[in-house]
């Protein structure tokens, strides 16, 4: 399994990376502003993972949404937090802003 992971500037990316490696995946991680869809295509991944990150999918996800749009239906794509929100927007959803940020409750 060859996984390309898009890092949306979140430390939890490395928890996901470690878990995938434990499962035997070969994982390459790229920041969301450091790779193009064409470069990802050239890597010939078997899976794409879009990491969590701060901000909103409309303006903080870099290459994440174009990568999802290209690879959806071609290979398995997993979005975590911001990555999932990117997928939600691509398929017609609207991501709003929370009135209050609450972690772990």
From TrEMBL:
Q: Name one GO molecular function term.
A: anthranilate synthase activity
Q: In which pathway does it act?
A: Amino-acid biosynthesis; L-tryptophan biosynthesis; L-tryptophan from chorismate: step 1/5
Q: Which residue numbers delimit the Glutamine amidotransferase domain?
A: 4-104
EC annotation?
A: 4.1.3.27
Per its UniProt entry, what is the enzyme's top EC class, as one word? lyase
Entry-linked SUPFAM superfamilies: Class I glutamine amidotransferase-like
Question: Pfam families, per this entry?
Answer: GATase (PF00117)
Q: Which UniProt keywords apply?
A: Amino-acid biosynthesis, Aromatic amino acid biosynthesis, Glutamine amidotransferase, Tryptophan biosynthesis
* Gene Ontology CC annotations of this record: cytosol
Q: Which CDD domains match?
A: GATase1_Anthranilate_Synthase
One annotated GO biological process: L-tryptophan biosynthetic process
This protein is called what? anthranilate synthase
Source species of the chain? Lunasporangiospora selenospora
């Amino acid at each position: 399994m060859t996984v390309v992971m898009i890092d949306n500037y979140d430390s939890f990316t490395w928890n996901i990376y470690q878990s995938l490696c434990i499962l035997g995946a070969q994982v390459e991680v790229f920041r969301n502003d450091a790779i193009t869809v064409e470069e990802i295509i050239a890597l010939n991944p078997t899976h794409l993972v879009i990491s969590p990150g701060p901000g909103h999918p409309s303006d903080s996800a870099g290459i994440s949404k174009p990568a999802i749009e290209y690879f959806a239906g071609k290979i398995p794509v997993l979005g975590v937090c911001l990555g999932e929100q990117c997928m939600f927007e691509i398929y017609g959803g609207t991501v709003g802003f929370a009135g209050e940020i609450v972690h772990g409750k």
